[in-house]
Specification:
There is one protein chain. By secondary structure, this protein is of the alpha/beta class. It has one domain: Flavodoxin domain (Rossmann fold, 3-Layer(aba) Sandwich). The radius of gyration is 16 Å and the shape is globular. Helix 1 crosses helix 5.
């Protein structure tokens, strides 16, 4: 089973990354092949809304020359895409949003090409946030659920840890155990 973990935090060694370590470790222990991509280290241009990708059959087809091409290949390789990010202002940071805005190349619904290149794949969320869980995460979760429905993806759920007292909360036995349990849950659902 191939799992792609996209870290969409501007801080590659921050709170969300602290959860990604044990999460990926548990996925590998479950026999998964894992690719871990730090989006903040890549160049991902904003979607230009040109729709050129909509006329390219059977491949991603974006005309922008940046690191999104590499991410697209990894997405097509994966059975499950895990979006790992902090919640800023009730949504994901710019690093993750840039990738999400470039999803058009996977969904051929607006031109001469047709179908979804990633239909049937799974998507899950690994989040960190400050406010209470539902209040902090619901807008982003709703957006991803809608994207999954539109694209024919299977939404597997979300695990989150709240920033309550300091960065050490993301490294506690409880946080690590919950994150590893979510990794096992994903493997069972795929």
């Amino acid at each position: 089973m191939n799992i792609l973990v996209l870290l969409g935090s501007p801080n590659p060694a921050g709170n969300t990354a602290a959860l990604c370590g044990p999460f990926c470790e548990e996925l590998r222990a479950q026999g998964c092949a894992v690719r871990y991509v730090v989006l903040g280290e890549l160049t991902i241009l904003p979607c230009q809304g040109c729709y050129a990708c909509q006329d390219v059959e059977g491949e991603y087809g974006c005309v922008l020359e940046d690191d999104m091409q590499e991410i697209a290949e990894a997405i097509l390789w994966a059975d499950c895409i895990v979006l790992a990010c902090p919640i800023y202002s009730w949504y994901c940071p710019a690093q993750m949003k840039a990738v999400l805005d470039r999803h058009y190349g996977f969904n051929k619904f607006y031109g001469t090409a047709s179908g979804s290149l990633w239909a049937g794949k799974a998507v899950a969320l690994l989040l960190t946030h400050g406010y209470e869980r539902a209040y902090a995460t619901e807008p982003f979760v709703m957006g991803i659920e809608r994207l999954a429905e539109h694209s024919g993806l299977r939404y597997l759920g979300m695990h989150s840890v709240q920033h309550t007292e300091g960065p050490e909360v993301f490294r506690t036995t409880e946080a690590v155990a919950g994150t590893k349990a979510f990794a096992r849950e994903i493997v069972e659902k795929i």
